[in-house]
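Ticket reopened. Same input as before:
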Amino acid sequence: MTEHIDRVRTYVLVFAVLIALTVLTTAVAFVDLGPFSVVVALAIAVCKMLLVALFFMHMRHSTRLTRLVVLGGLLWLIILILLSLTDFATRTWVGVPGR
Amino acid sequence: MASEGRAETLALREQFDTEEQQKDASTLGMWIFLITEIMFFGGLFLVYIVYRSANAGVFAVASSSLKVYVGAANTVVLLCSSLTMVLAVRGAQLGERKTIVLFLILTLILGGVFLGVKAYEWNEKFQEHHVPGAAFHFEGLPPELQGRAQLFFSLYFAMTGLHAMHMVIGVGILSVLIWQARKGTYSAAYMTPVDVSGLYWHFVDIIWIFLFPLLYLIDRHLGK
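Engineering reply: fixed in the latest deploy. New output:
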């Protein structure tokens, strides 16, 4: 078995960073950053996701196959969102019927 | 290697060569399931992005009526439950029965707290007539924009509702795990159910990590 047992200190540290990021994202939401509020909020959310996935979900110890599968899944999510938005975001540009 | 006379154990079923192979297969299977869940929630996120960009103003006003501190507090509760869950998994890796049971119970309690806060929030929406339906009314918006505000709350209830349903299922899974851990089913050699349930619990946490800013935060600076 190639079991990796992380130290409690590692988990507590990751947890502390997650809480700090939660406080930060809440505080920053009240600051007017214009269109960048969405960007900042989502960037912080992605950081939190990475921390949870890498440390709590043990992605940093997982097999290459598992990592590949997860990345493949995220790729499909990106396709789902971006490809759909190519339609919704550009409808007004060319004035197609049904708009 | 498997031999004909090998006794089957929980940690090493007949069809696997090694314990490590069995463990990796379970982990991979759980991740495949979680990816179907990502696509499941992904559809809702997509709908939210499309409607939010089409109704930016009304969505900003409606989103700002949610209580940001309640949402933030619930995020903290869920992150705490993720910490206790990972410590339960660690306990399982070390084969410490008492540690597993203790941290699983703490996770269960925190999950319950999250659902309780959610119920309080939803109840408030009913009292404020912010629940989509015949009685829906959002103060300060002209009648022609009420439908768009209703759209926001439909998405709010669909997304937080689906998330809460996953939490309820998670609470059910935790209850079974606690029962089995108390019986002494899990050891350092066999703790796969605790491990993959942990993956599920953290996944539900990640969904909330995205729901919280998208529903509560991103228009906060506009809606006052």
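Chain B touches chain A through 53 residues (CB under 8 Å). The CA atoms of residues 29 and 196 of chain B lie 9 Å apart. Please confirm and we'll close it.
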